[in-house]
Design goal:
Layout lengths: L4 H4 L3 E6 L1 H13 L4 E5 L5 E2 L2 E4 L11 E5 L2 H13 L5 E3 L10 H11 L4 E2 L5 E4 L4 E3 L12 E6 L2 H9 L6 E6 L8 H9 L4 E8 L5 H13 L4 E5 L4 H11 L6 H11 L2 E3 L2 H12 L9 E5 L2 H11 L13 H6 L12 E2 L8 H12 L5 E5 L11 H17 L3 E5 L7 H9 L3 E4 L1 H19 L17 E4 L1 H9 L8 E5 L3 H8 L3 E5 L13 E5 L2 H11 L5 E6 L6 E10 L3 E8 L4 H4 L2 E5 L4 H8 L5 H5 L8 H17 L4 E11 L4 E3 L2 E6 L2
Helix pairs in contact: 3-4, 6-7, 10-16, 13-14, 18-19
Length: 678
C-alpha cells in the first residue's frame, strides 16, 4: 500500500498553476486550513490574494501535498522538481494522457515522480474536510465534519456533484482519482478504511486497473467493518466504451464485477440517488443483520404503496408478534387495524406524547429497521412544525428502545435539510425518496449478512496468460481431461464410423452417437448428434450419415432420467483471469439467461451459495415430486474449478453443457475445451 498520509492530511501545500490554483487556494482557506500555502506561477506576482514563487525549485521546504494545474507536458517537469524536493504527493489536474491514447506521456509522468504518490492525471483532486484541505479547482459546499463518508470517483463531475449536494449526508472527503497512473482505487480504500472517522466508503467505478489489489483492499475494509457502496458504470456496451475513452479503464465483464462485489460484501447501486441514500443509512448506524422492516404512516395509501414497492426488493414487512400487537393497539384508536405496514391514522397527529408512545411500542417489536413515512412541507407558505413533531417522536422512540429508525420522505424533496441534520444528529436516518430508502435497507442487510459469514475468503490472484497457439479439443478429449479432475462423464468409445455398431454392442443399448471432430463446434446443428439409439440398424444408419461430416464417431452409453440440465463454463478475462459460470443448461441456456459467475479460485461454500440463486436450482432441490443429486452437482462444479486452477493461465474457454442432474449423480454429456499449448 502507498503511504498517503502526507498527501491526504497535509500541513503544507503547493499550488502550481493559474486560475484553477487560485480557486483551490480559496477553497482551502474557506475550509479553515491553518498550514502553509505556497502559490507557484512563473508570470503572476499574486494568486488568490497572496504572493507567488516563480518555480517549484523556489519552494523553501518539502511540502506535504501539491496541486498541479498546468498543461500535460510541462506537468512532467513540475512533478520531477517536486519529487526531488521530497514532496509527499501531488494531484495532477491536466488531461491528455492515456485517456486520449497518449500512454507514453503517462509513462513519463510516472517515471518523473520517482516514487512520489500521484493522484490522476485527468482528475479534480480532493476535498478532505477532516484535514481542511481542498486541492480542488471548483465550487464546493462541503463543511468540516468530525465523522462522515468518503467518496472516491473516477469522474470529476460526479465528484463535484457530491460536493454540492444537500441531502443530509455528512461527507468527510471526496476524491477524484482520474486515470489512476499511481494512486489507485485500492490504495484509497485501504487508506480510508483504516481511519476511524470514516463511517462508510462510496465508490464510483468505471474500471479497475488492478482487480487483485482492489480485492485485497476490499477484504481489509470488510475486516475493519467499514461498509463499501459502489456505483459501477459500464453495464451497457455504450457505457463500457465511454469508460474506456474517459479514463483509459477497461470496463471488464460486468458479471465479474458483480461476483467481486458479492464476495466482499460491497453493495452495488444503479442510481446516484440510491447510492447517496445507502451511504447515509450506513453512516447512521452501519449495516443491519436482516431486512425485516416495519412501516408507520398516517395514510392507508402510503401503507399500501410501501408494501407494493417492497415486492421489487429483498425486504419484508412481517406481522407484529403476539406480544407487540396488543401493546401497539393500546396506544391507538380502536378503529385502527394493527398490521404491518401500519396506518396509525390521524387520531394522534400533532400529539408528541401519544406519537412517541405508539412508535416506541412498534420499535420494541424486534424489527431490523423501523420507518415512518413522512413528507414534510418545504413550501414557504406552509408551516412544518406538526410534521417535525412526528419526526422527533420517532427519534425519541429510537433513543428509548435502541432500535434502528428512519424517517422516510416518499418524495426526495419532502425532507427539509434542517430536519435531516437534526435527525442525523439524533441517530435517525433521514431518507429522501421511498424507493431509494428501501434500496438502502436492502443493501445494508446484504452487507450485514456478508459480514456475518465466517468462512475464509480465497485470495484473488492477478491474471496471467501462458502458452502459445490455441488448441480446440474434441469432445472425447475434453471429457477425458475433465474426468481426471473428478467430473463424471458417460462411458464412451471413439472409433471409425464403420465400427460404431461394435462399439454400441460393447457398451450396451441405448446409446448416443456423435460425430468426433474438434472442427465441428455445434454438432447438433450440423446433424452430428443422434440420441437414444436402441438397435444395431439404427446405429449403422446414423453412423453412415455422420461419416459424411468426419471419419470418426463417439459412441456413448445413453444417460436417462435427468431432472435438470445445467451448464458449467470457464471464461478468460484480461482483468479477472479465469472465471467460472454456472447456470441453466441445454437448449435453454441462451433463452433463460439463468446464470451466476464466480471468480477463481473459489470455495465450496461460494459454489453452493451461487447455485442456490439459480431459478433452475428449484428442479434440483425438488419440484413436483422429483429431485436431483445436489451434492453431485457441487462436486461437478468443483471439478471444473479444479481443472481451471491446475491449468491457470492456459485456459481460454470450457463449456460443459449440458450437465445432466440425476436422482443419483450428475453427468457431463458434452464438453468443449479451448486452451493454449504449454
Amino acid at each position: 500500500m502507498k503511504t498517503l498520509t502526507r498527501l491526504l492530511n497535509p500541513k503544507s501545500i503547493a499550488f502550481v498553476g493559474g486560475n484553477e490554483c487560485a480557486i483551490a487556494i480559496r477553497r482551502t482557506r474557506e475550509l479553515g486550513f491553518t498550514g502553509t500555502i505556497y502559490a507557484v506561477h512563473p508570470k503572476r506576482d499574486e494568486l488568490s490574494g497572496g504572493p507567488t514563487l516563480k518555480s517549484p525549485e523556489d519552494i523553501p521546504e518539502a511540502v506535504d501535498a501539491a496541486f498541479i494545474a498546468v498543461k500535460n507536458e510541462p506537468t512532467i517537469e513540475v512533478v520531477r522538481a517536486l519529487a526531488a524536493k521530497g514532496c509527499g504527493g501531488a494531484v495532477i489536474y491536466a488531461a491528455g494522457f492515456a485517456e486520449t491514447g497518449n500512454t507514453e506521456l503517462q509513462r513519463k509522468l510516472l517515471a518523473a515522480a520517482n516514487g512520489m504518490p500521484l493522484m490522476g492525471p485527468n482528475c479534480y483532486g480532493f476535498v478532505n474536510t477532516l484535514s481542511r484541505a481542498a486541492l480542488w479547482p471548483d465550487e464546493t459546499g462541503l463543511e468540516p465534519v468530525e465523522r462522515g463518508v468518503a467518496l472516491i470517483t473516477q469522474s470529476g463531475n460526479i465528484a463535484c456533484n457530491f460536493t454540492m449536494m444537500m441531502r443530509g449526508l455528512p461527507v468527510a472527503s471526496v476524491f477524484s482519482i482520474g486515470n489512476q497512473v499511481d494512486v489507485g482505487m485500492h490504495d484509497m480504500v485501504e487508506t480510508l478504511s483504516a481511519d476511524p472517522r470514516i463511517s462508510a466508503i462510496g465508490l464510483h467505478v468505471e474500471g479497475l486497473p488492478d482487480v487483485a489489489a482492489f480485492a485485497r483492499a476490499a477484504a481489509l475494509a470488510r475486516q475493519r467493518k467499514v461498509p463499501i457502496v459502489v456505483l459501477k458504470t459500464g453495464r451497457s456496451e455504450q457505457g463500457a466504451k465511454v469508460a474506456m475513452s474517459h479514463t483509459s479503464s477497461l470496463a471488464g465483464a460486468d458479471t465479474l464485477y458483480d461476483a467481486l462485489f458479492e464476495r466482499y460484501g460491497i453493495a452495488r447501486m444503479k442510481s446516484v440517488s440510491a447510492f447517496a441514500e445507502t451511504l447515509k443509512f450506513l453512516h447512521n448506524g452501519g449495516p443491519i443483520t436482516d431486512s425485516r422492516l416495519v412501516s408507520l404512516s398516517c395514510s392507508g395509501g402510503e401503507a399500501a404503496l410501501v408494501a407494493d414497492m417492497a415486492l421489487e426488493k429483498k425486504v419484508s414487512f412481517p406481522p407484529f408478534n403476539a406480544a407487540t400487537k396488543p401493546r401497539v393497539a393500546a396506544t391507538l384508536n380502536e378503529y385502527v387495524a394493527i398490521d404491518n405496514p401500519l396506518d396509525y391514522h390521524t387520531f394522534i397527529w400533532g400529539q408528541p406524547e401519544k406519537l412517541t408512545a405508539t412508535f416506541t411500542e412498534v420499535l420494541k417489536g424486534g424489527f431490523d429497521v423501523g420507518m415512518v413515512i413522512l413528507d414534510t412541507p418545504t413550501h414557504p407558505k406552509m408551516k412544518p412544525e406538526a410534521w417535525a413533531t412526528t419526526a422527533r417522536a420517532m427519534a425519541a422512540a429510537s433513543q428509548a428502545t435502541g432500535a434502528r429508525a428512519a424517517v422516510v420522505a416518499s418524495l426526495s424533496e419532502g425532507m427539509p435539510l434542517s430536519l435531516a441534520d437534526e435527525l442525523s444528529q439524533s441517530g435517525v436516518a433521514p431518507m429522501m425518496g421511498l424507493d431509494d430508502a428501501l434500496t438502502a435497507f436492502e443493501a445494508a442487510a446484504f452487507i450485514g449478512r456478508n459480514w456475518a459469514r465466517t468462512e475464509d475468503l480465497p485470495e484473488m490472484l492477478p491474471p496471467v496468460t501462458k502458452g502459445s497457439e490455441e488448441r480446440i479439443f474434441s469432445e472425447s478429449a475434453a471429457k477425458e481431461l475433465l474426468k481426471k479432475h473428478g467430473l463424471s462423464v458417460p462411458e464412451g468409445i471413439v472409433c471409425p464410423a464403420e465400427d460404431a455398431v461394435a462399439a454400441a454392442e460393447r457398451l450396451g443399448y441405448p446409446v448416443t452417437l456423435k460425430v468426433s471432430s474438434a472442427a465441428i463446434a455445434h454438432k447438433t446443428e450440423a446433424g452430428g448428434v443422434v440420441l437414444n439409439l436402441r438397435t444395431a440398424d439404427e446405429v449403422r444408419e446414423a453412423a453412415q450419415r455422420m461419416a459424411k461430416l468426419a471419419p470418426d464417431v463417439l459412441v456413448e452409453r445413453m444417460v436417462t432420467g435427468a431432472v435438470a440440465e445445467l451448464i458449467i463454463g470457464l471464461t478468460s478475462d484480461p482483468q479477472f483471469g479465469t472465471a467460472l459460470v454456472v447456470g441453466a443448461g441445454g437448449i435453454l441456456t441462451e433463452l433463460l439467461k439463468d446464470s451466476v459467475t464466480l471468480i477463481l479460485p473459489t470455495t465450496r461454500t461460494e459454489i453452493e451459495r451461487a447455485l442456490k440463486t439459480l431459478k433452475v436450482w428449484t428442479l434440483v432441490e425438488g419440484f413436483r415430486g422429483k429431485s436431483g443429486d445436489a451434492e453431485a452437482v457441487i462436486r461437478a462444479v468443483e471439478a471444473v474449478a479444479d481443472f481451471a486452477n491446475a491449468n491457470r493461465g492456459y485456459v481460454d474457454e470450457v463449456d460443459v453443457n449440458p450437465l445432466l442432474v440425476l436422482k443419483d449423480g450428475a453427468v457431463a454429456v458434452d464438453a468443449l475445451i479451448k486452451m493454449r499449448k504449454s
